[in-house]
């Protein structure tokens, strides 16, 4: 009896859980009638058929298929596997390559034609449902009802879906935010005050400036939400599923596609107060930081606060033109336990001094050479073994295909039987050839010449001066070279000296050399250098 697996799926948590049991019972009855032996079942509950990503049951099924745990897959219908043309065709292609037959209870044995038709019908059905849902949402919005989630400042009306009512406790906070902003406070100041007063934020742990500012194009943030002024705006954005990640991402719609409905009963602030807030925002508007040409520092985006783990950003320049840095959580929300300001050049010097001293140590160089040779030997052995295995299988397939062709030519077998066998073997042969093209040819292990190690020492002697001078002159390549060595730099206060810092560096050297990469924890400008992730990973391309 053929070993058989069953797969079942339903789409949303609004459907009955018994849908899975009903599908499994139907597939088991089909297997009994066809004389199939069910050895495994897989299911996905409340998972859309629009993507294979996030469907653990289907992914487990494909893993078991690669391990040849079953010979036949039974589903109620092909749309249970997928409602996407690309995904359904890919599942069929891979299972066919593994010699696994797909059977649908209502359609029988699945072939390429059926996959194409059902994939097209399934995707059209899914897209048609999306259009009808949006049409229904538009109708609800025209009636002044909400088509989405709950906005801060409002609560649900029980028994009346889409209806909202003002939540007075949160509405008072909204009015306070608008009033303080119009009176001259910045979003950061407002966020600090709300956190100080222990006001629960709309989501997350704390208020921050982005909660209040939001995005003007998408209408996010308290100050941009026109619902607070009694205007319901729908269809600002559309949601699109990323085919590579399966996650939904939002894209802004043109303003002509927005749907605006007056809902004066939901107004929390007056039109005059709302317009005054928008006027102040326009007056304060500046070019977005991502569009500004700013000098790139070698540690930009790498700094972390030692007190709370948040990122660090620049905090102005003092009278001596030295750049100061501060914890972003302290700046945005005021929630950091140690909101100290540091000088950027002090941290950069600590990083450069520490890395240079540690990398020069003889133990690091010796360990690097040993690990280099061991890794190159392992990679070469793995490559040679894989190529040998593929070449052996290629020879077997070539001999078998020649035997079948000769049998057909001499009339020793039925061409209707031997022909498809030859075609299947030839398809596998092509796959082996394609895989061989991707396997690099066997190469010898290249030893490091002693002169290379001497050159390594000379280069380390020039590292600190060269990088520091290049970065100071604004050379982006020098900054990028330094960033290739370091992943994060965590900055701590040094309690033993005034103005001192300790830095903990997570780079890429430890992944290759282990904990001995930084043997002495060298101090640099009051800074402690600690290994984290290593300087060069032991992967192909070493």
UniProtKB/TrEMBL annotation:
User: Pfam families, alphabetically?
Assistant: Recombinase, Resolvase, Zn_ribbon_recom
Residues forming the Recombinase domain are 151-287
Task: Please verify whether the record's keywords include Repeat.
Answer: no
Q: Which SMART domains match?
A: Resolvase
Please provide the record's keywords in A-Z order: Coiled coil
The family database entries (Gene3D superfamilies) matched by this protein are listed as: Putative Large Serine Recombinase, Chain B, Domain 2, Resolvase, N-terminal catalytic domain
What residue stretches are annotated with the Resolvase/invertase-type recombinase catalytic domain? 3-104
Q: Show the CDD domains listed in the entry.
A: Ser_Recombinase
- Protein name per UniProt: Recombinase family protein
Per the database entry, which stretches of residues form a coiled coil?
A: 380-414
Q: Which organism is it from?
A: Mesorhizobium argentiipisi
The organism's place on the tree of life at top rank: Bacteria
């Amino acid at each position: 009896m053929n070993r058989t697996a069953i797969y079942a799926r339903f789409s949303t948590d609004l459907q009955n859980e018994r849908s899975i049991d009903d599908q499994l019972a139907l597939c088991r009855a089909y297997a009994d009638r066809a004389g199939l032996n069910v050895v495994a079942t897989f299911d996905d509950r409340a998972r859309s058929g629009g993507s294979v990503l996030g469907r653990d049951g289907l992914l487990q099924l494909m893993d078991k298929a690669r391990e040849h745990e079953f010979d036949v897959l039974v589903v109620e219908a092909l749309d249970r596997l997928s409602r996407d043309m690309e995904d359904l065709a890919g599942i069929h292609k891979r299972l066919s390559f593994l010699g696994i037959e797909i059977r649908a209870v209502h359609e029988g044995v699945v072939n390429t034609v059926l996959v194409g038709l059902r994939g097209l019908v399934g995707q059209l059905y899914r897209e048609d449902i999306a259009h009808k849902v949006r049409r229904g949402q538009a109708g609800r919005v025209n009636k002044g009802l909400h088509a989405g989630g709950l906005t801060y400042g409002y609560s649900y009306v029980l028994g009346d879906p889409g209806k909202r009512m003002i939540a007075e406790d949160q509405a008072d906070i909204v009015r306070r935010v608008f009033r303080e902003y119009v009176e001259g406070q910045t979003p950061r100041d407002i966020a600090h005050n709300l956190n100080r007063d222990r006001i629960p934020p709309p989501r997350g742990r704390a208020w921050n400036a982005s909660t209040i500012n939001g995005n003007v194009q998408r209408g996010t943030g308290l100050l941009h939400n026109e619902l607070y002024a009694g205007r319901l705006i729908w269809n600002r954005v559309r949601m699109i599923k990323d085919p590579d990640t399966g996650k939904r991402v939002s894209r802004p719609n043109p303003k002509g596609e927005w749907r605006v409905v007056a809902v004066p009963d939901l107004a929390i602030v007056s039109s005059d107060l709302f317009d005054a807030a928008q006027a102040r925002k326009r007056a304060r508007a500046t070019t977005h930081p991502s569009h500004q040409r700013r000098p790139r520092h070698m540690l930009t985006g790498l700094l972390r606060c030692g007190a709370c783990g948040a990122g660090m950003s620049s905090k102005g320049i003092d009278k001596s033109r030295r750049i100061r840095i501060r914890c972003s959580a302290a700046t945005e929300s005021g929630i950091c336990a140690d909101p100290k300001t540091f000088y950027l050049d002090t941290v950069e010097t600590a990083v450069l001094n520490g890395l240079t001293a540690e990398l020069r140590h003889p133990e690091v160089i010796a360990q690097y050479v040993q690990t280099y040779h061991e890794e190159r030997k392992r990679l070469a052995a793995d490559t040679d073994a894989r190529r040998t295995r593929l070449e052996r299988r290629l020879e077997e397939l070539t001999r078998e295909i020649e035997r079948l062709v000769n049998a057909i030519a001499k009339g020793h077998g039925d061409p209707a039987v031997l022909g498809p066998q030859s075609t299947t073997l030839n398809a596998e042969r092509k796959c082996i050839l394609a895989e061989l093209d991707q396997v690099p040819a066997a190469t010898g292990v290249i030893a490091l010449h002693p002169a290379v190690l001497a050159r390594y020492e000379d280069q380390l002697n020039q590292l600190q001066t060269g990088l520091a001078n290049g970065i100071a002159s604004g050379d982006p390549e020098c900054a990028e070279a330094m960033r290739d060595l370091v992943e994060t730099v965590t900055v701590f206060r040094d309690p033993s000296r005034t103005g001192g810092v300790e830095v903990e560096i997570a780079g890429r050297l430890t992944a290759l050399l282990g904990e001995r990469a930084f043997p002495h924890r060298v101090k640099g400008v009051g800074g402690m250098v600690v290994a984290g992730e290593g300087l060069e990973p032991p992967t192909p391309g070493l």
